[in-house]
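# nightly structure sweep
# worker-07 picked up a monomer target from the shared queue
# config: single-sequence mode, recycle default, output format = structure tokens
# input follows
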Amino acid sequence: ATPSPKGDAGTMAAVKAAYNEVENAIASIDDVKIANVNSDKQIIIAGGKKGISEAQKQLSTQGLTVIPLPVSAAFHTEYVAHAQQPFARFLDSQQFNKPQIPVYANSTAEPYPPKLNEVKNLLKNQILQPVYFKQQIENIHANGGRIFVEFGPKGVLTNLVKTVLAGK
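# output follows
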């Protein structure tokens, strides 16, 4: 979908810190929110470029490592709302079947519900919601999941799973 004419698609940054530490540090910064909770040691923030720049300075001043991410937009925020609506319309045109095995939603860290309209609603709004990767992996593990397979050119998620499940 074509972005809205805001002029700023937003951006994201990784912060090497715990959730509460990042949440407290960005609370007073306009237009910045937590987009991903990847592990106890990695939080992704997203928002307008000005807000993320301010957050980077503030977090760095507090001694935290902040890594700007090479992204085209502030994903998991209202900055991608322009894509959510066409995506929702597309989902409405698709036939869904009841999941045969538990499939976990990244916006709730829980299995998708058995009712298909609830599955569609979760998927429609997932684009705009934070990703709770850490909790998702912990919940899958708590429910018996032991094998995690990453598809992609790097081992970013594999390393996050190792961090989340350290000692388990």
